[in-house]
């Protein structure tokens, strides 16, 4: 807008803009963008973060979707305690080994010592399953399908990062028990599909659905599936996980039932979760050097309307047009807000809303008023278009849909470009050095994965398997493992984890 | 019906029915009804309880209502950490004194001692307000209106009771800051009205909106308003509270702003909360010797449809009619379920659904099938009526509305009958002995309340002020305080707290 560009008497230009670039210093850029974008405030306890309304709004939108979907699957919400006694926590050995170093312990109340220390849940398998054992008696009590939305605590010490690795985080955890393995297997994939939809349909992030290796699976479970995100630079992020626990916990917690024929059986169990980590992944994938870039489907504000007054122009007319525009959009179910603050220049406002990642900016100046139009500026690619006010809602909807799709397409393109298919150890090492995510034929042996880790140790972190994609490319007879030379059993993604 | 009554070959008649009566042994009755009604499971850590889907469903329905209402008020959701450092927790002295004995402390992670112990939030004033101080600079940052849905921990030792006094509970806590006291005052009452609506419109429980005495107000605040429930036997339950904090926390946490004229000011703050206690109050008010009685507006299942097959009758026809009935009701937005289990008799099913408090039972037997009708049985008063299937939805809706209203009316009648107006100390003592809730003219002096407590000490617990109703009856000139003989300033409710 001509008006906006000329009137550059900015009153408060301080504090805007990022000092780090995404490509140059990713870690610093990320910390800065989540704070300046008003997603996060750092907290005075290390590894804990405040989720401000700008990020909670995203969480709530995903929650509404996911909660409705699992209710269709007859999964019911419940709430189990935050606290777990040490004897119960330690009942499943492999499981507790995976979590023990990260468990926070309450030992005092007021000034008194507790008789025995009490743990804060790092996850709720051991919290819930003693009661599964109590509630499940016969086949008619099955399936038992519960979910809870809650906080969990994992007192990690390595490199806390907002959303991605925080000592407390929010998630949902589903815990289900079935009479047969078939039912459990089916649900694992049903839930995994919901996680895919959260990433692809809501966060505009392409994911790979896959199965984890024995080394990387959930401690104490039978097998783990996940949606994996390629965050670039050869680093994968585990987006969400859906585990089949098999009968291992059922054995430890004695979750038995009597079937139709009066025979004793043991249940098959699943657990599955996605967390506020999703929001961090979204920031990482879409954000740029101007700040956040929010996909329209999850943005609390999808459209911000900024007046661009000009000295001799009809300022009140412009402000009224802004208000009317927001009203029209809101009535059509579009989340729109105007920014009528009179102590900031349009340019300053543009920067601020770009920092906050609002998908579409509408500017209204004297020329727009005269032509009964508004100017639209896309956050994702900066492209501008003038649209008639008569046709506002339809065109804004189309623009928002296009932005959502463009973000997914761009992320896919980037992802595909950063994947390298390799067949030999030398190719693997080269690709790793080039920071590629690697797809390689593998023998699927635990010892070989350990060996790969050992051989790739270094300051970047060792390579590890990310997942074996559920949709496997063809594996010709006689293909050998890139690392061991043994016959390959499956294609598997490798990389470093973030 | 006839069929159901005759066919009494019950396969599993065990475990149903309550062993305690509400009027005879209230405490035991309550513990039993929340467990048998499948609201609660006792947990292996004392004072912690599992909220089963049957109670979470009630919580979720209230949450959807309240969350939408506060969003209309431009209050935004956020999430602050579970943990608070001791230095911050202890910043406001009166406040921490109120909570200190109940604070749970984390002192270890894994096998390591933390450098300094970290508290688990008993409430979040001190967690949040350092950041209010950071975020609020000028008058344009005001009002700041936040809310969070979360768990809090108060490690109480006295008489833990499911929902009512538990060591961990779920709640929402709103925290807002304004430029002026007028705005804060207004919001306190707006929120109090939402709490009244939760109790009266959803839980069918009449409440008194009132103001707390100086002794009973929130530690560190300016004044506290509440909705008070009379649970009978002269005992009041604080239903939910809306506090004006004044400028006390603002002073401690330096929450200042510059107004339009460039002058420094201090914000006025409120905080307000309701918790899962609401559900316990509902159980106490409506439950009876057959179990829970759920108001239709909050019941996860509003209508249960039970087939009543008879030996020579068209069993499949009856089952189909049940399924069709549920479908018709569900399509109309009524939460209905059928109970087609073939290993329980109709009578056993009736008892179970009565125990769980489902508001309306529909029975379909051969006669009903022949007459194209269903039999409706109300949970609240046991009354029966036959309704034509052509007209099902409309009549069921009317019945559910009637049940909702009847529950409120009955609770009001009981409440009104148990309130006694007194003017003298002797009348007060008599009314207290008769387990009445007492309305008395009071001088509103803290010393006098202390004195009342002292003088009424006993095994039933001392009397205390519950609230001064916002709607005051007329107080004629010259009325004197029931306890001190000084001039009375207001009518105040007194009783024992539950």
Automatic annotation (TrEMBL), chains A, B:
<protein>
    <recommendedName>
        <fullName>proline--tRNA ligase</fullName>
        <ecNumber>6.1.1.15</ecNumber>
    </recommendedName>
</protein>
<dbReference type="GO" id="GO:0017101">
    <property type="term" value="C:aminoacyl-tRNA synthetase multienzyme complex"/>
</dbReference>
<dbReference type="InterPro" id="IPR016061">
    <property type="entry name" value="Pro-tRNA_ligase_II_C"/>
</dbReference>
<dbReference type="InterPro" id="IPR004154">
    <property type="entry name" value="Anticodon-bd"/>
</dbReference>
<dbReference type="GO" id="GO:0005737">
    <property type="term" value="C:cytoplasm"/>
</dbReference>
<dbReference type="InterPro" id="IPR036621">
    <property type="entry name" value="Anticodon-bd_dom_sf"/>
</dbReference>
<keyword id="KW-0436">Ligase</keyword>
<dbReference type="GO" id="GO:0004827">
    <property type="term" value="F:proline-tRNA ligase activity"/>
</dbReference>
<dbReference type="InterPro" id="IPR006195">
    <property type="entry name" value="aa-tRNA-synth_II"/>
</dbReference>
<keyword id="KW-0030">Aminoacyl-tRNA synthetase</keyword>
<dbReference type="InterPro" id="IPR017449">
    <property type="entry name" value="Pro-tRNA_synth_II"/>
</dbReference>
<dbReference type="InterPro" id="IPR002316">
    <property type="entry name" value="Pro-tRNA-ligase_IIa"/>
</dbReference>
<dbReference type="InterPro" id="IPR033721">
    <property type="entry name" value="ProRS_core_arch_euk"/>
</dbReference>
<dbReference type="InterPro" id="IPR002314">
    <property type="entry name" value="aa-tRNA-synt_IIb"/>
</dbReference>
<dbReference type="GO" id="GO:0005524">
    <property type="term" value="F:ATP binding"/>
</dbReference>
<dbReference type="Pfam" id="PF00587">
    <property type="entry name" value="tRNA-synt_2b"/>
</dbReference>
<dbReference type="Pfam" id="PF09180">
    <property type="entry name" value="ProRS-C_1"/>
</dbReference>
<dbReference type="Pfam" id="PF03129">
    <property type="entry name" value="HGTP_anticodon"/>
</dbReference>
<keyword id="KW-0067">ATP-binding</keyword>
<feature type="domain" description="Aminoacyl-transfer RNA synthetases class-II family profile">
    <location>
        <begin position="81"/>
        <end position="295"/>
    </location>
</feature>
<keyword id="KW-0547">Nucleotide-binding</keyword>
<dbReference type="GO" id="GO:0006433">
    <property type="term" value="P:prolyl-tRNA aminoacylation"/>
</dbReference>
<dbReference type="InterPro" id="IPR004499">
    <property type="entry name" value="Pro-tRNA-ligase_IIa_arc-type"/>
</dbReference>
<keyword id="KW-0648">Protein biosynthesis</keyword>
<dbReference type="InterPro" id="IPR045864">
    <property type="entry name" value="aa-tRNA-synth_II/BPL/LPL"/>
</dbReference>
